[in-house]
């Protein structure tokens, strides 16, 4: 197969000005290419054998040598880039999976997320009049909640999402050279996992009410209550006691300020005073689970002083 013509000029006359061409210093290039010296100071670059599949690029050095004998032949080298580009096939994604998260309800309607874009091998080193890549959702969009910008692959919502109804979706986006086109090639398909974020992300206690009992024989640092809260978006939670909500019996007045310790990271409430037999009644208060953004949840706690005779 003929690729392109080569030509050179030499000011010498007769045989000294006759130019021949060859491939210099590249064994790989010599494996695939040949120079056919078939013209007057011109030649044809030819392909010797079929190239491997896919886009191929070779850097050749073409040497033009004259026919001089005194003091000898002279030559000039020219670097040539030879590119073989595919003429058929669909665009392909480097990574066939992506994930995004939309906020539920109206807040998510203004969100936009850039999905990975495909590459078209036919556009290799293309500068103008290149093949346009179009994107479309071809599977998983049964509720018509989602859409993508056809030329940018930006995903957005057509309908508000409701996390209480469904927390995750999965759609498939196809890349094609035709608007709305589909592809059967897995490399041209992008699977997008879509999570639904809460409109009001916050900590949530697993129980609204916690209770415990204290005997006068119990010792300081005994663990009494194990609070448990989860964050709707997995953020860290800090636990605390709201002292302003504390209600007690008069017999507990002397210890109320520092009656309990709470581990801010684990939510474990421990005894911080030495009980006596004259103490009775209960400590009633609220605990708070807070996140780093200031959102919080509350639960009620009652810790009773228990007589050894009625335990």
From TrEMBL:
Gene Ontology biological-process annotations: adherens junction organization; calcium-dependent cell-cell adhesion via plasma membrane cell adhesion molecules; cell migration; cell morphogenesis; cell-cell adhesion mediated by cadherin; cell-cell junction assembly; homophilic cell adhesion via plasma membrane adhesion molecules
A cellular-component GO term for this protein: adherens junction
Location in or out of the cell: Membrane
Superkingdom of the organism of origin: Eukaryota
GO molecular function: beta-catenin binding; cadherin binding; calcium ion binding
Keywords associated with the record: Calcium, Membrane, Repeat, Signal, Transmembrane, Transmembrane helix
Domain Cadherin: 5-93, 118-205
Membrane topology: Single-pass membrane protein
PROSITE patterns named among the record's database cross-references: CADHERIN_2
Subcellular location, principal: membrane
Protein name: Protocadherin fat 3
Species: Spodoptera frugiperda (Fall armyworm)
